[in-house]
Amino acid sequence: MEKFNFKITKKLDGALGRAGVITTPHGTIETPAFVTVGTKATIKGVSPEQLRDLGAAVVLGNTYHLYLQPGDELVAKAGGMGKFMHWEGPTMTDSGGFQVFSLGAAYGKEISKVVKITDPSLMIPERFDDSDAPRLANIGNDGVSFKSHLDGSIHYITPEKSIQIQHNLGADIIFAFDECTSPAEDLRYQEEALERTHAWAHRSLKEHLKLKEEDKKEIALFGIVQGGRDEILRKRSAKTIAEMEVDGHGFDGFGIGGSFAKEDMSTAVRWVNEVLPEDRPRHLLGIGEPEDLFMGCENGVDLFDCVLPTRLGRNGTLYTKFGKINITNAKYRDDFSPVDDDCGCYACKNYTRAYITHLFRADEMFAGTLGSIHNIYFLVNLVKKIRQSIIDSNFSEVKEQFLTTYKTNKKGV
RNA sequence: GCGUCGGUGGCGGAGUGGUCAAUCGCAACAGACUGUAAAUCUGUCGCCCUUAGGGCUACGAAGGUUCAAAUCCUUCCCGACGCA
Fold it and tell me: Taking the alpha carbons of A23, A206, A272, A92 in that order, is the dihedral positive or negative?
């Protein structure tokens, strides 16, 4: 069985970017790569065969969701998440740290991971003051108390518990339990949360090494860098996580977490990747718009995951080289061209916009499948092109060319 | 022919004297979505003026009662059912 490792094959001149290969027990991942999100051990609406055929390399499942349903022990009994879901390639699981945010501070609110407001501190306090707002995740220093959205039962997740669940799920790469903070939080809170995330990272690492000793599973653990939008915190976090060790063992790679204001993202990523050691892979958690992918690759990110291709694909928004289109718009009813005439995906090679808009209008399940296949292909392939451009030393040209066309946003073309 | 019930916005269907341009659902139109509480959510949805707001035309048709009618009365048209 191949052990986890990461090799850099080419670096970007004058920037942090690089192309490389991650090896896992279930195959290799050529990086940079777009990781597809299969929260509940399925890419919503897409079969593993379809996923493989469109060129995806990795699937990311979720600790919290799989722990609640069907239960991590059942998944272990099935032979691990990959075997359970019939995905033979590399797998990852997220630790549940994002649910600390999405079911906590963001619960019932219009806050998302990437905020539109340039300066999140300008968010209207009354709107975001949630001290007594209901939430499904409540943070303590030792762990997080979750109230299940499925049946209301209470579950206390500690770093140790998250790692135990993840070892049961048995992915090739797992993440330390962290606290993804809201962009609306002030610096004082970000700092407090960061200390907690660091303490949890240490406990995660310790538990992981202990379990690895016991279960002999070839699982790699990534530590997560947080720190909000503050330079000092981000760099401190990167340094802390990078240097963190238990019995001489550190993290196998890194996650860059947290939520951002769109404009902050590139600086935050740069701050972190300037500090993180070069020889271990970096995963920018939950980010995946095309312009973000260029930004991340340029700034030394090796892995991205994002729900956007599947969520948008299911909801009728499709990527094209001219920007995103809403395929349910009336103008596509009699448009017999493919979604994107340059696209080589199954949906574009075989179906028209008219047909896909019909499927959406008729509430047919296949609509979401075709939309997801197209969007995943689009993003997976975009990152592959970026990777190739790093290898071919023409990243800037490829970026410039793509983004210029993409921003024209010629809807209807 | 007689009787009963009913005719409301693209459709279904509330409302049964003022707070009704008319609840709600569907359809339609548009928007949002970034480690998935999401095959979800939001907005618009009679016409005109630029939003707050204002004006106009509307609840089968035509008359009428009333300060005020989708709502009451009369006649007519149409539909369902019942009796001949």
Answer: positive
Q: How far is the CA of A410 from the C1' of B54 (A)?
A: 38
Can you tell me the distance from the alpha carbon of A103 to that of A70, in angstroms, rounded to the nearest whole number? 19
What ipTM is given for this predicted complex? 0.91
Counted domains in chain A: 2
CA nearest neighbour of A97 among A9, A195, A190, A179: A179
- Catalytic (active-site) positions of A: 94, 305
Domain region containing A302: 5-306
Taking 90 as the threshold, does the pLDDT of residue A94 lie above it?
Answer: yes
Domain co-membership, A10 together with A71: yes
Verify that A388 and A358 share a domain, yes or no: yes
A237 found inside a domain: yes
DSSP string of A168-188, one letter each residue: HHT-SEEE----PPPTTS-HH
- Domain with residue A122: its CATH number is 3.20.20.105
Residue A330: CB less than 7 A from any atom in strand B: yes
| Nucleotide nearest residue A224, measured CA to C1' | B35
pLDDT at residue number A283: 98
